[in-house]
Amino acid sequence: MLIKEFRVINNCTEAEYQVAQLYATAMASKEQTGGGEGVEVLKNEPYEKEDGEKGQYTYKIFRLASRVPSFVRAVAPTGSLDLYEEAWNAYPHCRTVLKNGWMKDNFSIVYETQHVNNSRGELPNALNIPEADLKKREIVMIDVANDKIDAKDYKPEEDPKLVKSVKTGRGPLSEPDWQKKCEPVMTCYKLVYIEFKWFGLQTKVESFIAKAIHNLFIKFHRQLFCWTDSWYGMSIQDIRDLEAQIKKDLDVKINEGAPVTLDK
User: Fold this and answer.
1) Are 14 and 147 a contacting pair, CB within 8 Å?
2) Which residues belong to any copy of the Phosphatidylinositol transfer protein N-terminal domain (predicted)?
3) Which three-class secondary structure state does DSSP give residue 85?
4) Does 209 map to a domain?
5) Which CA distances in Å does 31 have to 38, 75, 259?
6) Which CATH number goes with the domain that contains 158?
7) Residue pair 180/119 in contact by the 8 Å Cβ criterion
8) Which helix (H) or strand (E) holds 178?
9) How far is Cα 134 from Cα 128, in angstroms, rounded to an integer?
10) Residue 112 counted as domain residue
11) Which strand (E) or helix (H) includes residue 130?
């Protein structure tokens, strides 16, 4: 098992990030879907646990077989690579679990995320994980403005070093030490447990997954900043309405591969 803690510093408040994250997630789902692959949202509803925790529960299926490494596709049965995601969003703490029906308990990706206002990634153990996990944990700092992304994913309009928010005046994040100076500021502490039990492939696949997650977090948070003028000022109800509309569009798009046009 790999344990990685990704720390992402963002030029917004913790309260703003709640809306920004949901907005960017909805838009990313639309971007990933089409031609028989993508995201299918089965549940998106409030929940309350016996201990009093309240939040939003989502259950999604990710059909992204073409993005799985070829050496895994070569040995996996057709249709066996779908991922099932359950998420409990009790913001500012969130828990997400991804599993695969074919591999069952031999595969899982678990995210534990804590969102902390006025933090610049300095907290040593924001998620209060046990000492045994701390010894295995690798900390990865993410700089949304300067970390490299794949050339195929680069868009000038999604480059924080070039984008300035009209509504907030934030950006561009062009200074090398912007993380130390930006206001407002918050940090996402994202602890990720990656487990892939398959003799001969475990180390290779777990490393592949960790790299893919790292790249995903960079791209996602670059977009989140650059879309500030789209999500800024939205309410949670605005987000729920957007999610409902996008779900309808995704249900069509995943089956037909037709383009979805929805203004950001």
Assistant:
1) no
2) 1-248
3) strand
4) yes
5) 9, 28, 9
6) 3.30.530.20
7) no
8) helix 178-181
9) 9
10) yes
11) none
pLDDT tens for the chain, residues 1 to 264: 999 999 999 999 999 999 999 999 999 888 777 666 778 899 999 999 999 999 999 999 988 666 666 766 666 666 677 899 999 999 999 999 999 888 888 999 999 999 999 999 999 999 999 999 999 999 999 999 999 999 999 999 999 999 999 999 999 999 999 999 999 999 999 999 999 998 888 999 899 999 999 999 999 999 999 999 999 999 999 999 999 999 888 888 777 654 444 443
User: Does any domain span residue 158?
Assistant: yes
Peptide bond into 172 cis (omega under 30): yes
pTM for this one? 0.89
In angstroms, the CA 62 to CA 151 distance is 24
User: Where in the sequence is the domain holding 187, given as residue range(s)?
Assistant: 2-37+88-250
Cα–Cα distance for residue pair 189/124, rounded to 1 Å: 10
Q: Is residue 32 part of a domain?
A: yes
For the beta carbon of residue 69, count every other beta carbon within 10 angstroms.
Answer: 13
- Which SS3 state, helix, strand or coil, does residue 144 take? coil
Residue type, 223: Q
Q: How many domains does the chain have?
A: 1
